[in-house]
Prior knowledge:
single chain; 91 residues; 1 helix; 15% helix; globular
Amino acid sequence: MDFKDLLPIGSVVLLKNAQKRLMIFGIGQRDENKGKDYDYIGVMYPEGSMGEGSQFLFNHGDIDRIFFRGFEDEERSAFLDRVQRMYDGQN
């Protein structure tokens, strides 16, 4: 996974075959129950988190349309560099 290719948190997207948009609030997520990694976790837009069952894991390839790209700055770039090194086992 190349974390630099991922959308920033706050981005609003529509998934393929979906009717409701999601807002991304996390990247590089793992479903421990399934042992599977995902690119993103999101909540419905504009509602946000509405309790258990309102968060959705998905991958970049699942996105049909990007409505809004979230905020990006130097702090995000440094964070992505650290996460990428950890993911690649370089600490």
